[in-house]
Amino acid sequence: MAFFPASFEDLIDRFASLPGIGRKSAQRLAFHVLGLPEGEAEAFAETILWARRTVHTCPVCQNLTDGDICPVCADERRDRSVICVVAEPRDVASLERSREFGGVYHVLHGVLSPMSHVGPDDIRISELVKRVAEGDVKEVIMATNPDTEGDATAMYIARLLKPFDVRVTRLAYGIPVGSNLEFTDDATLVRALEGRREM
Amino acid sequence: MAFFPASFEDLIDRFASLPGIGRKSAQRLAFHVLGLPEGEAEAFAETILWARRTVHTCPVCQNLTDGDICPVCADERRDRSVICVVAEPRDVASLERSREFGGVYHVLHGVLSPMSHVGPDDIRISELVKRVAEGDVKEVIMATNPDTEGDATAMYIARLLKPFDVRVTRLAYGIPVGSNLEFTDDATLVRALEGRREM
Fold this sequence. Notes:
The structure is a homodimer. Chain A is α/β, with parallel strands linked by helices. The first copy, chain A, has two domains: 6-54, Helicase, Ruva Protein, domain 3; 64-180 and 187-192, Dna Topoisomerase Vi A Subunit, Chain: A, domain 2 (3-Layer(aba) Sandwich). Chain A contains eight helices and six strands, in the order αααββαβαβαβαβα. In chain A, the strands form two sheets. In chain A, strands 4-3-5-6 form a four-stranded parallel sheet. The first copy, chain A, has a two-stranded antiparallel ribbon with strand order 1-2. In chain A, β5 (139-142), α7 (148-160) and β6 (167-170) form a beta-alpha-beta unit. In chain A, α1 (6-16) packs across α2 (23-34). The longest helix of chain A is centred in the N-terminal third of the chain and has 15 residues, at 40-54. In chain A, 28% of the residues are buried. Chains A and B meet through α1, α2, α3, β2 and α5 of A and α1, α2, α3, β2 and α5 of B.
């Protein structure tokens, strides 16, 4: 037996279908939306539609944008000879926040994952190869996550870029700044030792 | 500097405005909605609009419904002489789940809270008094949450119903003090109903 009106149960179902939202949270969110001031719920619905309608991928770097090309690719001060390859648009946001990187990006929209049936044709690898093949690229920094799939994807792309006159690098592994040797896992410690540098 | 398109930032803002959703979760949800299959995001938006348009309060018990009156009030097998008073529609759902209660409900849509400037006229108390005044009601069970505001609201209503020939009871303290009706297990709710006492 349903204890709420059908249209309200539908709203709960919609929220419950979102990642990380359980049944109880979905119910709380649905009540919240129902209790919003006049016009606010409509604005919520319209924001969803508007975002879906305007947001697409940048034809150059595949990052999300609502313009012709994304702000990074449009920025003439960015160094087009260095491409930083990331798995997801949110990774671009993280790197931009660090204000350290002055090059451009390439967003793969995923990583290779045989377990989840994600192959090279399912992510934006060919677009990257095309960019490199067009020349002018001196370095490709692989900034996929430091896990099995991220490593495998970086390795695969590095091999693919071998024929081109381009340096392929990988983000350094090591102990996170501000963390503690005692609580660092063995794999990270091994990498940190391997990657040790002259002081 | 914004790292995402404006319409996408708007979508993140919308999700972040929901209760219990932080900035990171909101970003994850926005990405999810953007990645939904064609038509799914539209269906999400329409569900919000549809729920807002069809759901209203039952003119009898003030619970949420999309019909003329709610399913409980429409059910002829329910005992109209016993009214269970709850703070929120979700509390009706909790009590119905326990399958112990055969009477009808009254939803206050809040509790008295001087701290939050919620007075007797801000919740559906007068509607309850009117129901009791119309006669045929033998018992009113106060099932507001067992916390300070829930107790005070129950006490206030009990005093208000004194002039009428009606028994006013309170859910038994089988419910752990300081907790929440919404998260109470069925067995505890059954005990609480069985052990209700004269106020």
